[in-house]
Specification:
This protein is an alpha/beta fold and 541 residues long. It has helices spanning 2-12, 27-38, 50-64, 76-79, 82-91, 140-155, 249-253, 276-283, 320-341, 348-359, 372-380, 401-412, 422-427, 467-475, 482-489, 501-504, 523-540; strands spanning 17-21, 43-47, 68-72, 95-101, 127-130, 165-170, 214-218, 233-235, 265-269, 288-292, 307-311, 364-368, 387-391, 416-421, 443-449, 492-495, 511-517. Helices cover 33% and strands 16% of the residues. Helix 1 (2-12) crosses helix 6, helix 3 crosses helix 12 (401-412) and helix 10 (348-359) packs across helix 11 (372-380).
Length: 541
């Protein structure tokens, strides 16, 4: 009865999906979730791997914006959710951990599958609550109130930022329904037991000079309302302002000829993390730096400690000559970039990113993997409207990317895609393991397979002087046959080159992998050649 009340209250709080991993101690919740699914009150997703389950729930919550519960049994099963909890914490995603637990008197006694689960996630969760054992109508109000408190914390409605919450639920035997009675009713009208209003935040306007040469830098989590600004915007692909961004912004900031493009002030929105040229600008003491306040109360980005004030962006009125300089440079850089990318000798990852973004149909969703794919999109693709762009930039790991893409696709309601590297796919290969009869999304996963970790070839570790050690400890080569892996998990597979991308991305039902082979050995030199080409074009503009 306790589990039935908890699930009922979750539905009343707006939960539409739940993820479940099988276990004994969480059997009461399993039966309750199954019954709610059978009644059409919630959509249940069952997985065999808790780590995968956590990221599936993360993807569902990331796309829908609604809290999504993920339910596990006790012991190490709960600990396997930690990577997803960390990403949810730093990305501000409302994830609900329903961790079944042993009765308190069993903790510390040597009982099987028993660990101290209270506070297991430390400061990564917005709130950690432990429910009381018990059964019968007398617990109805307390259990419903506990769920409402957890959901409110996950949604951040009381002024904090959204994020993960742990609801630890001890269950005593019997762990299966006994058929006695019906769960006590909730509030009339189907609403939550406790209605929690969202607190609106008001912040002052930034004390900047509206007429000064201004540049806006936007990263993941940048708030809405920054489209069509009258100043140049350098935006990362997963940020709200990306469709209206300066296409070659990261290249231009790193150009030796960028002196005329240097702003007097820069405004940071969200968490820009992709490009060192952006980080150098934000650290420049001669540039006045300001930050847009996050509407959910998340901390502002200020790695270099240069931010002068946090607040709302005022109306900007820059000199038209400032806009003209940026447009002229961007036009020249974009033309040179496209001409270079048209050559088959250009880095495949950049050519692929450009091709994928151009080929996606309007209404599509694209989740971009960490490491090179998200940077390739930022450096090579032309920003466009008509897409929903997602990325796991909370802690920017490659963890659970397949499962996150699965969850986001299930919540999208249209054609869904992911652009991943081969190591990212292999890191979460169990994300393709979906049981018969489980909800299955329409998802196309484009995989750049360069046989290892390409991003390190672009970093200091990839310099020629480290060549003797590089391949084994950074390149991490593998010989996995992705076609065989897909066949083993029942996923369709096709192998194409960049020219075949438009045809391969035509909307199709089910889960499929589009593999694009590439060579890592020329990656560093290829990027250097592109940099030289773009720099020359900007200098001549």
């Amino acid at each position: 009865m306790q589990a039935e009340v908890i699930v009922d209250e979750l539905v009343r709080c707006g939960a539409t999906d739940a993820v479940l991993c099988a276990g004994s101690r969480n059997a009461p919740l399993s039966f309750a979730l199954h019954a709610a699914d059978a009644a059409g009150r919630i959509r249940l997703h069952v997985r065999i791997d808790e780590r995968t389950a956590g990221f599936l729930a993360l993807g569902l919550a990331l796309r829908s914006g609604r809290p999504v519960p993920v339910c596990t049994t006790s012991g190490s099963a709960v600990a396997n959710l930690h990577p997803a909890v960390l990403e949810a914490s730093y990305a501000g995603v409302p994830l609900l951990v329903l961790s079944a637990d042993r009765p308190p008197e069993m903790v510390g006694t040597g009982a099987n599958q028993t660990i101290d689960q209270a506070g297991l996630f430390g400061g990564a969760v917005r709130l950690a609550l432990t429910g009381a054992l018990g059964g019968g109508p007398e617990g109805n109000a307390a259990w419903r109130s506990l769920v409402d408190r957890a959901v409110a914390a996950a949604e951040g409605v009381l002024g904090g930022s959204p994020g993960p919450v742990q609801l630890n639920l001890p269950f005593a035997e019997p762990l299966v329904p006994d058929g006695s009675g019906v769960a006590p009713a909730g509030r009339d009208g189907g609403g939550p037991w406790t209605s929690v209003p969202r607190i609106a935040r008001e912040v002052p306007v930034l004390p900047l000079d509206p007429a000064a040469p201004t540049l806006v830098v936007a990263g993941s989590g940048a708030p809405a309302g920054l489209h069509d600004l009258p100043v140049p915007v350098i935006a990362e692909p997963a940020s709200q302002p990306w469709p209206a961004a300066v296409r070659t912004g990261p290249w231009l900031l790193g150009s030796p000829s960028a002196g005329l493009l240097k702003p007097a002030q820069v405004v940071v929105a969200g968490r820009p993390t992709l490009h060192r040229s952006v980080q150098r600008l934000l650290a420049d003491p001669s540039v006045a730096t300001y930050a847009v306040a996050d509407p959910d109360g998340r901390p502002w980005t200020d790695v270099a400690g240069t931010v002068r004030a946090v607040g709302a962006l005022p109306t900007l009125t820059p000199d038209p000559s400032w806009i003209h300089r940026w447009r002229t440079a961007d036009t020249a850089a974009a033309k040179a970039l496209d001409q270079a990318l048209d050559a088959e000798t250009a880095p495949v990852g950049l050519r692929l990113a450009r091709a994928v973004l151009a080929a996606l149909p309007d209404g599509a969703q694209l989740l971009v993997g960490s490491s090179n794919p998200v940077r390739d999109v930022s450096l090579a693709a032309a920003p466009r409207h008509g897409l929903t762009m997602l990325a796991s930039r909370g802690v920017a790991g490659i963890d659970g990317s397949v499962s996150t893409a699965m969850g986001a696709a299930l919540a999208h309601g249209g054609p869904a895609y992911a652009l991943l590297g081969d190591l990212t796919l292999l890191h979460d290969a169990t994300g393709f393991v979906i049981g018969p009869g489980e909800p299955r999304p329409d998802l196309t996963v484009v995989v750049l397979n360069d046989g290892g970790g390409g991003i390190f070839g672009l970093l200091e570790q990839g310099a020629p002087e480290h060549a003797a050690a590089f391949e084994r400890i950074f390149g991490t080569p593998h010989t996995v046959d992705l076609a065989a892996l897909c066949a083993a998990t029942g996923v369709a597979h096709v192998r194409v080159d960049v020219a075949g991308i438009p045809a391969a991305l035509a909307p199709a039902p089910g889960v499929r992998v589009v593999e694009v082979p590439a060579d890592r050995l020329s990656l560093r030199a290829g990027h250097a050649a592109l940099r030289a080409t773009v720099d020359a074009a900007v200098a001549a503009a």
